[in-house]
UniProtKB/TrEMBL annotation:
Signal peptide: none annotated. One of its GO terms (molecular function) is phosphatidylinositol-4,5-bisphosphate binding. The lineage of its organism: Eukaryota, Metazoa, Chordata, Craniata, Vertebrata. It holds the Pfam family Spectrin_SESTD1. Keywords: Repeat. Belongs to the SOLO family. Residues 1-135 form the CRAL-TRIO domain. It comes from the Eukaryota. This is SEC14 domain and spectrin repeat-containing protein 1. PROSITE patterns: CRAL_TRIO.
Length: 678
């Protein structure tokens, strides 16, 4: 780093006791002389050959070698001689002899006299100077500089090759160039960091030095280290920026290719194995268990599809992100990939949804069919059991239950038809593209099965309806039979009540003929009511017989109802006849008595015959006798009209009237007795 008085660089060659390799020395000199600029070289070199620890022959060889290595650049060679001086004559003679041939001046000088030719500040401490110099530190920094220069130059070539390869040629050549030269041999970030650290050292105008010591400040225009580093750094930054863009483009292209590859994987699976899975699943099952098994299989298929749909969602998000931040040249390709992926996924999802809905509809259809079949079985079982009701109410309840079951079957069949039609509509809407093949044959089997189930249920329901009609008619006849029996028994009760009323309340015989005639007319009407009741009962019992014959059964109550009815009617008839006889006798009695009692005494000729009085007396006595006589029935039983007090009252009234007639008779006899005496 020191300079001579002509501003020429000083080159120091220290020699040692060991054997010095001239080849190594020559290589070292070539390297050192390659560092300065041409301008510095033109000013020449002052070479200091430190021979204090070496032999003369070695020194001479080194000096002669300088002629071959740097003959033009060397202006002065200072050979520092040892304390034990060589043979002056020999040394002087040799250098003097070779002066013209060497082309530069060679002087022998002791170390303390070297300052005559070179300023002390340009000499190191080894030669009595003050120039601070740390050779190991210089060497380390020089190695760093050389390494940076080598790596940066190599890196620049690599980056230029990569960048230039990406800038020109076809897309295929570009991709091939990037693939072959994409990764540099060294890390650009590391090289840039090394360059910046080195530049920082150079900008401080020092390589290093002892802490607190005087810095060594080389001239930039001589060593050219700082300008070279800055130029290399600028070039590196430029190429590295282009390289990063190339990496970004390649990363984007790689990402695009990966997305395209994944998209094709999803598309190929959905259109391949995924569609094949759906092609093999076309049936709907023939029962609930079969439909559930198909649903479970379909869920497994959906589970496999869901994994690919998850990939689709992820890819769609990635494509959307690239579309938001992508270049114009990638938008068309990205949108095409997105559209292709969406079309395939949505089409496959639609097929899965269609299949799921179809299986759900089939399950509902078979569930309704099974419920309807169970209802028909229950209705048939109910119809197969013979009816043995206890009364009409139980028959009505059974008939109501039968009607409810039939109505439930009707509703079930209607629901089955609705479910079946809905399922048929779904099957008919199943286009050939849904599974990628013609599904007419498979659909025909499904359609035939559905229609077969509905027809079978319709036939079973029709058979049950026919049986219900027969059972309904039979039960209605039984209801009518029980009703006739109940009404016939009621007629007997009514007739018994009429008989009881006749005996207990129809006891008055009237106070005169007119009243008695009114009572007689009322009695005839009363008898007409009883006759109607009796006829109604007879008709009901005749209907009971007809219904029993139709039902082929024996009535429980009609066997004793008819004898009871006839017995009560017979008793009523006998009682009624007795009542009529008494009323008619009372009419005759009252009419005769009233006729006699109302005639005037001035007409005695009207009473000439006393037989009328006797007849009235006979009728009255006969009536009184009947009042005391009970009504005797065919079974030997007896019944009285009213109570004894009632009969006594009626008899008393008759006796009073008989007294009036008797008194009238006496009055008429008295005038007859007086006439002969006069």
């Amino acid at each position: 780093g020191g300079k001579d008085r002509r501003s020429g660089l000083i080159l120091t060659i220290p020699l040692c006791l060991e054997q010095t390799s001239m080849d190594e020395l020559s290589v070292t000199l070539d390297y050192l002389l390659s560092i300065p600029s041409e301008k510095c070289k033109a000013r020449g070199f002052t070479v200091i050959v430190d021979g204090r620890k070496s032999q003369w022959n070695v020194v001479k060889t080194v000096v002669l070698m300088l002629q071959n290595v740097v003959p033009a650049e060397v202006s002065l060679v200072c050979v520092v001689k040892p304390d034990e001086f060589w043979d002056k004559k020999v040394t002087h003679f040799c250098f003097w002899k070779e002066k013209d041939r060497l082309g530069f001046e060679v002087i022998l000088v002791s170390a303390n006299k070297l300052t005559r030719y070179i300023e002390p500040c340009q000499l190191t401490e080894d030669f009595g100077g003050t120039l601070t110099y740390d050779h190991m530190d210089w060497l380390n920094k020089r190695l760093v500089f050389e390494k940076f220069t080598k790596e940066s130059t190599s890196l620049l070539d690599e980056l230029a090759l990569i960048n230039n390869g990406s800038d020109k040629g076809t897309q295929q050549e570009k991709e091939r160039s990037i693939d072959l030269n994409f990764l540099p041999s060294v890390d650009p970030e590391t090289v840039l960091q090394t360059g910046h650290e080195l530049l920082s050292e150079l900008q401080q105008r020092r390589f290093n030095g002892s802490d607190g010591g005087v810095s060594w400040s080389p001239m930039d225009d001589e060593l050219l280290a700082q300008p070279q580093v800055m130029k290399l750094l600028d070039s590196l930054r430029e190429q590295y920026t282009r390289y990063q863009e190339v990496c970004r483009q390649r990363s984007k292209r790689t990402q695009l290719e990966e997305i395209q590859q994944k998209v094709m994987q999803v598309v190929n699976w959905l259109e391949g194995p995924g569609s094949e899975q759906l092609r093999t699943q076309w049936g709907i099952g023939d029962s609930i268990r079969a439909s559930q098994a198909l649903q479970q299989k379909h869920e497994e298929i959906e589970s496999q599809h869901s994994e690919w749909f998850a990939v689709y969602v992820e890819l769609n998000q990635q494509i959307a992100a690239l579309l938001n931040a992508g270049d114009e040249e990638d938008l068309v390709e990205l949108k095409a990939l997105q559209q292709q992926l969406s079309d395939v996924c949505y089409r496959q999802a639609s097929q899965l949804e269609f299949r799921q809905n179809l299986l759900q509809a089939a399950l509902e259809f078979h569930s309704v069919a099974q419920d309807l079949s169970q209802q028909l079985d229950g209705l048939l079982g109910m119809l197969c059991v013979d009816v043995a009701p206890a009364d009409g109410a139980s028959i009505q309840q059974t008939l109501k239950l039968l009607e409810e079951k039939l109505k439930s079957v009707d509703l079930g069949l209607q629901g089955l038809r609705e479910k079946g039609q809905s399922l048929l509509d779904q099957i008919s809407n199943q286009a050939s593209w849904a599974y990628g093949k013609d599904v007419t044959i498979e659909n025909k089997e499904n359609v035939d099965h559905i229609q077969g189930v509905m027809e079978d249920m319709q036939l079973r329901k029709q058979r049950c309806e026919d049986m219900v009609d027969v059972r309904r008619l039979k039960m209605l006849q039984m209801v009518q039979l029980f009703k006739c029996e109940e009404d016939a028994a009621q007629a007997v009760e009514w007739l018994s009540e009429l008989l009881d009323a006749l005996l207990k309340t129809h006891i008055r015989l009237g106070d005169d003929a007119q009243e008695t005639k009114v009572l007689l007319e009322k009695h005839r009407k009363f008898v007409d009511v009883a006759q109607s009741t009796y006829d109604y009962g007879r008709q009901l019992l005749q209907a009971t017989v007809v219904l029993c014959q139709s039902l082929r059964c024996t009535s429980r109550s009609s066997g004793d109802t008819l004898p009871r009815l006839n017995r009560v009617w017979k008793q009523f008839t006998i009682t009624s006849e007795e009542r009529v006889h008494r009323l008619e006798t009372a009419v005759a009695f009252h009419s005769s008595a009233e006729k006699i009692l109302q005639e005037c005494p001035e007409q005695p000729e009207a009473f000439n015959e006393m037989e009328q009085f006797d007849e009235i007396e006979v009728v009255g006595k006969s009536l009184l006798d009947r009042l005391t006589v009970p009504v005797v029935y065919p079974d030997g039983s007896e019944q009285y009209f009213g109570s004894p007090s009632d009969m006594a009252s009626a008899a008393e009234h008759i006796r009073e009237k008989m007294k009036l007639v008797s008194l009238k008779k006496q009055q008429l006899r008295q005038p007859e007795a007086a006439t002969p005496e006069s």
